[in-house]
Amino acid sequence: MIDQAAFHAEGWKDVIAAFAAAAPGGKAVFQAVEMDGATAVPLTTAGWSDELTSAYAEYYNVINPWMPVMLAAPAMRPVFSECSLPASHFANSEFYVDWLARADGADGSTGMRVAERNGRFGFLTFNYELRFADQANAIYEPLLRAIGPRLRRALDINCSTRPAFVGGQLLNAFVEPAFLLGSNLQIYGTNAGADALLRDGKLLRSSTRDSLEVRHTAFRDAIIKAAQRACAVRMLPGPSAATPAIVTDSGVFSIVTLTVDSKFMGASVLSPLMFPRRLALVTIRECSASYDREEFLLVLREKFGLTPAEARLAAALDGSERLSDIAERFNVKMSTARIQLRSVFRKMDVSRQAELARLILEMRARHAP
Predict the structure, then answer these.
(1) Which of 12, 50, 98, 342 has the most CB atoms around its CB within 10 Å?
(2) Domains contained in the chain, number
(3) Which residues contact 182 (CB under 8 A, 6 or more apart)?
(4) How far apart are CA 45 and CA 27, in angstroms?
(5) DSSP-derived secondary structure for 96-109
(6) CB neighbour list of residue 187: distance below 8 Å, 6 or more residues apart
(7) Which domain holds residue 138?
(8) Where would I find the H helices in the chain?
(9) Are 8 and 154 members of one domain?
(10) What is the per-residue pLDDT across 90-124, written as a single tens digit (0 to 9) for each?
(11) How far is CA 238 from CA 189, 199, 222, 321, 325, in A?
């Protein structure tokens, strides 16, 4: 069953169910534990009610007294709760009274730490009624020791195999080339436009280890910076600023990045182990041809009655930079930039920066040589 799960991650549900059935009243959970001890995410369970599993995922994992035991446990070595931290030591805690006691016989446990990856490690935990602790541990400890290497091997295969459908619906919604990248430019998903760029190979290509390689130095540095920023744990899922246009031998391009929480990828029960916590959804936008900047500023002033400062601001707001970045570049206060932006909105008859960016790009294309 473990060998089958190596090539079909959903098979871990059957493996965990078999583990739970190995001891009387056994309950099993395979969870992804943050290496900093912040949280633990149940990957698949057996013997636990959906209500208790959901409650654990949403709250009780954070106050789990056994978390320090899991963090300190050596890899591939079974840990017995009665030797490390008996439940009686925290019987009056919120975790025990409000959650563990409701599980109907789960105050004894045996577990093992396996498969470290992406800032998390997998931890197998088997719970049982305390009065059967010695009997249950006598089953689980030798079982884990015997098949631990096979567990590790299967999980390594899982984590080294990238499902082709990861982020499929999300990525295919983009017309522009789109990549799901880790902070180290590991490729976790592509759409048709991205695949075409990789096949062409002039600007981007994929290494033998599924890592994105960028031939143009400035373009590569921009993608690395954008991906690292989007993948930072402190980042909330949402949009990041686009980069200014970068001129390469293959054309002029801008990078637009979106922070994506990997739990939404839904590739398999092992997603929290297979993917980093944050992924960068990077789209490659081809920019219009170059244009005479001074002439374009004059067009904006004459057509919309903008002041020189307003025209300069409007021309810069093409979606490639945030207002705060533009204000800093032009050495003006943010309050001044906001006043100018309101005036630009009124004179150019737009109400949002996205509308302004679209109008600027359309006008720039018409005035390109």
Answers:
(1) 12
(2) 3
(3) 188, 227, 231, 275, 276, 279, 280
(4) 8
(5) HHHTGGGGSS-SEE
(6) 162, 179, 180, 181, 206, 210, 211, 212
(7) 2-160
(8) 2-7, 12-20, 50-58, 67-72, 81-84, 94-98, 133-160, 168-172, 192-200, 217-231, 271-274, 293-304, 308-316, 323-329, 334-348, 353-366
(9) yes
(10) 999 999 999 999 998 999 999 999 988 777 899 99
(11) 18, 29, 19, 16, 18
**Confidence band (pLDDT; 50, 70, 90) for 76?**
very high
Q: Taking a C-beta distance cutoff of 8 angstroms, is the pair 168, 59 a contact?
A: no
Other beta carbons within 10 Å of 312: 19
Give me 363's structure tokens. Answer: 């006008």
Length of the chain equals 369
> What is the DSSP annotation of 222-237?
HHHHHHHHHH-TTPPS
| 3-class state of residue 126 by DSSP | strand
* CB neighbour list of residue 138: distance below 8 Å, 6 or more residues apart: none
Strand locations in 103-192 (E): 108-117, 120-128, 178-181, 187-190
Q: Is the Cα dihedral 97, 98, 104, 107 positive or negative?
A: negative
- By three-state DSSP, how is residue 339 classified? helix
Domain at 189, CATH number: 3.30.450
Residues 6 or more apart in contact with residue 1 via CB below 8 angstroms: 11, 14, 15, 18
- Structure token pair of residue 45: 């369970």
Name the DSSP class of 211.
B
Q: Are residues 6 and 139 in the same domain?
A: yes
| pLDDT tens-digit readout, 189-248 | 888 899 999 999 988 999 877 889 998 888 888 899 889 988 886 655 545 556 777 767
